[in-house]
Structures are given as C-alpha cells and as structure tokens.
Amino acid sequence: MSEENQPQPASLERVLARKRAADTFKRVARYSAVRLVTLFLTIVVAIFLTIVIANMGGYVDEIRRGEIRENFNQQAAMNPAIRNLSVEERRQWVEERVRIEEERQGLNKPFMVRTIAYMSNALTLNLGRSMHLTSDSGSRTVRLILLERLPSTLVLFGTANILLFFFDLYVALYLSRRYGSFLDKLVITLAPLNSAPGWFYGIFLILIFAAILKILPFGGMVDTPPPSEPLRYALSMMKHMILPMLALALSSVFLAVYSQRTFFLIYSSEDYVEMAKAKGLTSRDIERRYILRPTLPTIITNFALGLITVWTGAPIFETIFQWPGLGRQLFEAIGLYDIPIIVGETVIFSYLLAITVFLLDFIYALVDPRVKVGGQGGAPS
C-alpha cells in the first residue's frame, strides 16, 4: 500500500470515534428495549394480581350478582303491576332482568376472561366507571374521580416530601462534619422512633393541638365554609397542613438523616478525601466534589421514589386527618369493593414507578462516570 492510500491519523481517529458511537448506540438501544419489555411484563403481572386480589378471586362478583337480584326483587315487590302476577311469572320477570343486567356488566362471562379483558383496558388507561364512588360533579368516570383528588394529595405530600428531603440532606451533611457530637448521638437515639407510621403520630398531634390546646384544626383541607378570597383560602390550607406535615416529619426525619449521614461518613473516610484535605481544598469543595458526588445515585433514587409515592397518598394517614386526597379515596374504595378505583390508582402508580426506574438508569450514567448503560453487568437498578 502506497503512502497516499494509507489512512491518515486524523481520518483513522474519526473512523474509530464513529465506530465507538455506533457501538454505544447499539448497546444502549438493546439495553433499553430489554429493560422496557421487562418493566412492562412486571406491570402486567402487578395489574393482574391487583385485579384478582381486589375481586377476592371472584367473590366480589358474587356480591354484585346478589345485589342485582336483590334490587330487582325489591322492584317486583314494590311495583303493583308486578306484585299482582303469579309467583312463576314474577320469578321469570326477575330472572330476565337479572340476566340482562349481568350481561350488561359482563358478569355472564368466566372470571378469568373478564379479568384479562379488564387488565387489557387498564393497561391502556381505559379505567372505566366507578361502581360506587362519584366525583363532586356526580361523574362516575374513574379518570375524573382520580384527577379530582390528585391536587389535594400533591399539595400535602409533595410539599412535605420536598421540604423534608432537603432538610434531611442538610442536617445529614452537618452531622457528618460533627461525628460524635451531642446532636449526632441524639439523632441516632431518636432514629427508632421512625418505626411508627405517620398516622400514629397524627393521632397524638390531633389530641394535643386540636382537642386540648385548640390552636389547630382537627382535620380537613380548609375551613368550613371555605374562604372565598384566594389569600385567605391559601392561609387556611397552610394552617390545616401543619399537623399532617409535622406527623410526616416525626415518622421519617430521624431515620432519613441517620441513613444519609452514614453514607456521607463512609465516603468521607476514603483515601481520595484525605488526599484532597492534604492538598488544602476547602471543606465545601471536598463535600461537593468528593462526598456528595459519589452519593448522588443514592440521593437521586431516594428523591425520585419519594416523589412517586406522592401520587398514591396514604390511605390511613389521609383518613385520620380527613384530607380529601387519593389515599382517602383508596381507603373508601377498598371498603366499598370499588374495583375500578383500586385498579386505576394501581395502574397509574405502576406506570410512574416503571418510568422512574427506567430513567434512573440513564441518570446514574450522567452523574457517575463509572456507570455505563447496558455495559457489562448492566446499569444499577
């Protein structure tokens, strides 16, 4: 090969760069496809089990059949024209209308067939109509009912989760710099208190501040009747959010601070941190570049999963504080065996969780150069 035909170093470098880019694209595309299929299959299994469990293996359908028959028996007993018929004719009238109503609701099909059909509709977000619950406008469309309760849950849990996340992060960093101090030992001592759920502390807070001291409301989202002015409405809502947010803080803050403080202590004892100190870097630079950055995947995961739980609310917690959110609605739906509402909330949470887990793999690769999406061993999950 002559000198003119040999590839030049710059040209060879461009060819290798294009080859590396193509290999990277193929690896990421292959990993993404496998990951998406896996997550979708997980959602399918979760929705299927939710439908089966919510229906108690078909027992709720038997309850619905009984309610349909009882309803038409009552109509036959109250209608003079039907009551004057013979026993056989009255029975045939009831049976015919029961059959028509069961066909309309799909109760004439086998349980597994109806479950698969219901699961297919749920996966396409065709959530149907509620069996018992209605929106404030009187609609039984599940989508409208969920959207109506969603803002209340986002206001309470979204605000609480974001404030607590940054508070926990700041205090954990502060304690990692003062290992063994009185405050550090106090947080370690109080961490087991977070084993109790938020509604447990809510009961005591309501008893103290609402029943005894009478300085805060027992529950609800705003005063009754609601203030008409926007500013007064916002102030009323903030007053009603004090006790729920305090209960959420008491149920999580000590354990969260202790956990993050432990991560920071582990990374602050690494050799490269000691080398940075020897070079004379400031404490702020060391924390930002050598302690916070390696822990970013864990911090981001906690923050993302915390935001996902915002969309589900907390059934018992919202019921204790009479907060009109998705959690309280789910509690009511479980008590009424309202399967469409239960499945609807589960479907939305499943999709949000799957999307979050999928995106986290790429976020890890952006914040941590050691992580390669689709590389050997895969991205961390």
The number of helical segments is: 16
| Unreliable stretches covering 5 or more consecutive residues | 377-381
**Got a strand count?**
0
Main beta sheet, described?
A: none
Q: Which superfamily, in CATH terms, is the homologous superfamily of the domain at 150-367?
A: MetI-like
CATH architecture of the domain at 150-367: Orthogonal Bundle
Task: Give helix and strand order, one letter per element, not per position.
Answer: HHHHHHHHHHHHHHHH
Do you know the CATH topology of the domain at 150-367? MetI-like fold
Mean pLDDT: 85
Percent of residues in helices = over 70%
Which structural class should the secondary elements be placed in?
A: mainly alpha
Computed over alpha carbons, the radius of gyration is: 29 Å
CATH class of the domain at 150-367: Mainly Alpha
Bin the strand percentage. under 5%
What sort of overall outline do the alpha carbons produce when their principal axes are compared?
flat
**Straight-line distance between termini:** 50 Å
Structure characteristics:
mainly alpha, 16 helices, disordered C terminus
Explain what you see.
The chain has helices at residues 9-54, 59-78, 80-83, 87-105, 111-123, 142-177, 182-190, 198-212, 230-250, 253-268, 271-278, 283-292, 296-310, 315-320, 326-335, 339-367. The two termini are 50 Å apart. The protein has a domain at 150-367: Orthogonal Bundle (MetI-like fold). Helix 6 packs parallel to helix 16. It has 16 helices and no strands. It is mainly α and 381 residues long.
